[in-house]
Specification:
Blueprint (H helix, E strand, L loop, with lengths): L1 H18 L6 E5 L3 E6 L4 H21 L2 H23 L3 E4 L4 E4 L2 E4 L4 E9 L2 E9 L5 E9 L1 H16 L4
Helix pairs in contact: 1-2, 2-3
Length: about 170
């Protein structure tokens, strides 16, 4: 039983490490009138496997009555489960020329004319891609579009800038 618990948790850690680079992947879909930025959910299957392994480890740890393993297994399942929910709920960012609007899901962010810039903001080993825009009253506002590695954030920034500076049709 101990081998099952420790093996499950060990495999969960390995799968979690394997899924890490997949979590930052986004799809950038461009048409003449729209640019769609959406999380691919590439790590969802691996994350699901990690949750299952953590639940198996939790059941075995409960049978062994080991508080440390119960807490470790439950924490792993909750953390990765929350990540799955967050990824599944992530809404696409749409730059829409016909509607003259940038929106996240159904929530409008700003008009295309209100965009002041796109910034790659370093955040440790990662970087955030932020949309800088003017609100209706003229105040400067920011919206984080995506968080990834700095090189990938710069590539997304270039693709979005290209869309914003070229005319449709």
């Amino acid at each position: 039983m101990w081998a099952v618990v420790l093996g499950s948790l060990g495999l969960a850690i390995v799968l979690n490490l394997a899924a890490t680079p997949l979590r930052d992947r986004v799809s950038l879909t461009r048409t003449p009138d729209q640019l769609l930025l959406r999380n691919q959910g590439a790590a969802l299957r691996l994350d699901g496997a990690v949750v299952i392994l953590c639940l198996i480890a939790l059941a075995c740890a409960g049978a062994l009555r080991s508080p440390t393993l119960i807490v470790a297994s439950a924490a792993g399942a909750v953390i990765v489960g929350w990540r799955i929910i967050r990824t599944a709920r992530a809404e696409a960012v749409v730059f829409d020329r016909p509607m003259d609007l940038v929106r996240r899901g159904d929530r409008p962010i700003c008009t295309l004319g209100a965009i002041d810039g796109l910034d790659v903001v370093p955040q440790g080993a990662r970087a955030g891609l932020e949309l800088r825009y003017r609100e209706a009253g003229g105040a400067l506002a920011r919206e984080r579009l995506h968080r990834t590695h700095p090189r990938e954030a710069a590539a997304l920034q270039a693709a979005i800038r290209d869309f914003l500076t070229t005319r449709s049709g």
